[in-house]
Amino acid sequence: MTGTGGEEMGVQAARSRALAVLRVRSRALAVALLPAAAAVILLAGGATGHLTGGVWDALRWVVSVLALLVLAAAAAVALVVARARPAVTPTVTVDEESAPDLYGMVRDLADRLDVPAPSAIALTPDCDSWLEDRTHPAHGRPPPAAEPDGATLPGGPAPRRGDAAPVLVIGSPFLWWMRVGELRAVLAPVVAGTGPSAHPDIAAARRFIRGLDAAAAVVSAGGRRGPLSRAVHGGLGRVVRLLLRGCRVHAAEMERGVAWAAAERAQAVDYGVRIVAQEQVGLAYAGWDRLLTRVALPAWRMGRWPARLDVGVVAALTELSRRDRLAEGFASRLGERPACDLLEEPGAMDEAVSLLAARLFHGGPSGASPDWSPVGWDDYPEEVVDRTWRTDAARLHRVLDALGVRRAAGHTAPGTGGPTLARVLDHLTTPADEASPGALSTPAPAAAPDPAEAPNPAAAPDPATAPGAASTRAHAAEPAEPAGRAEPPGSAEPAGGDGSVTRTGSPADAAPHRPPAPAHGDHDTHGGHFATHPHVAQPDAAHLEADLPGGDSDDPPGHRRATPATPAAAPTPAAAPAVDEADDEADDDDLAGTTARGAALAAGLSAQLAREEAEASVTGAGAPDAPPAAAAPTAGPAPDPALWDDRALPLLPLQPPRTGREILTAHVTAMVCCAAMDTAGAVPALDWLDGPSLLFDGVRAADLAPSVLTLVETGDPGPLRTWMTELGIRPEKPVRLV
Questions:
Q1: What percent of the chain has pLDDT over 70?
Q2: CA 503 vs CA 90, 171, 179, 430, 555: distances in Å
Q3: Rounded CA gap, 14 and 667, in Å?
Q4: What is the distance between the alpha carbons of residues 31 and 24, in angstroms, rounded to a whole number?
Q5: The pTM is what?
Q6: Nearest 5°: phi and psi at 420?
């Protein structure tokens, strides 16, 4: 086998680093036993009559008490490390009965690589593949995998039969987008990692680091009551973090050695195909990322979850191939056998993974309910797009009612009291006698009182205070993380950096962060949502990532989603006012580019959204999980319940909280779309790359987003009225809301 020398060097380097990690453990044990050894010597000296006298007696007592305290502390640390539950990735287990061809392919690959086969296969809603150790009792020991006869491990003894090998976790988009040969080539270096992983020293070092990482998460969790409990956990945390710092460098080098050895061993298997397949890895990620943020997120917000996300990935990438003249070769791949054919029931598996994605990225319940139900792609325009726009438009008019804005615009016919677009345009239009746009201190005809309270049209508080008054409530309903974060949750290293996850390891795997939040309903506020999608110059992952907002990150997927992210600690009561003030300042800065009326309306919308989302967290899609009888939408596979910690949902939020300007822009856009559907014959539609879209005679509407932004930011309705006039939209006509 080629590359044997490099493989041996990689294993030896990993083993030497594993021994260094184990030496840290041995030194910690020695330090804990040192006072006890000194106490034994002093007690033995007193018993034999060699160390007698008042000084020795006092020393014996002091050292004995110290030894007992140190042993008690060491036992407490060991108990916490042993009982702590290492974090693993929530997945959908694939039984061998439901995918015999997939198991056969993986075992044949392990035979060719001369390594133990993975003990089980699981799917994750991510574009990555890795090995994961799940031998901890809290996770349930996986069944032992059959090993090929004569299998040996370089640099160590052969594994004993019955020892559980790691679980192979495969990204579900790979199964639907890749062909069978491509999937085999991509999985080759991952499966090759089972060889070094089974080495006793490497396995022991990984278990030690995983235990320390889990213990650090336990002792750092909030909610400790009493000074004694906090002091004990603080001391345990300092010891655990000290040990982790001592192991950090050695653990990182150990994993590099393991990856080196696995890559060298896999070179002889489908090497040429792997080069081509890595291009598909980047494409699959780009399509998956876009599908989640542009298509799935609007449905999740409406209490619906697309039941065929992986099928949507194929449709999105096929659409990209159609639009991109340089990507015509990708469409020809669809004639080959897809990797999802290795599953007996790909539809049921896709549904289970889609529900898992909704829980991971949005925090939905574990099963279907009246407020949380699946939706098919054929029903998406009617059930999600149309409903989203009409719901946003209804919320916009409710807030206008609370602000005391009259129902009928000045130029409408008498008796017209229904919700009209003209009412919104007239309210946001800046009168000629008002100050220049962006001056929030200029008095506005209507203020932004709390919509939950009884509105008083005569009251007109200072609109300069309205955005700040509602911004705290708006932020309270969004994910508990700063809006300007540089990295998404889960970007931390896998559990303690133990590297139990062996990634696909290719430059093409580099994945961008999740894009920042567009406005509600995923309307691109910079013209990208309703504008015709530009032709892509290059059909590669780097170009596609550059097309996504925030797609310039260099963090690989392995550092994003190796393990569930530990929930961020809530701010202390003393720090809460500072956090609220920072949120208020951020909202004020965002609304500084809008008119006074727009800022007041944005504040009211933010407060209304905050209340609705808070209610939904108790009674709607964010409520506690359904009973076991309704835990799964179908009788098919379901996410592994033993891997869940529902207190941390969503584990991987897609985007930061939306700003007031984004919320206002989305609601105005939704009102325009409702008017277009009810007065000009437009229809809602689904664009696989851009999400909800508006069609006029089968053609996507363009240039809407810039016109809406002009109205929101400057109070000038001219461009929007011109756009509506060209398409025959009548803003004075009432529209249907929900």
A1: 66
A2: 17, 11, 20, 55, 13
A3: 56
A4: 11
A5: 0.71
A6: -125, 155
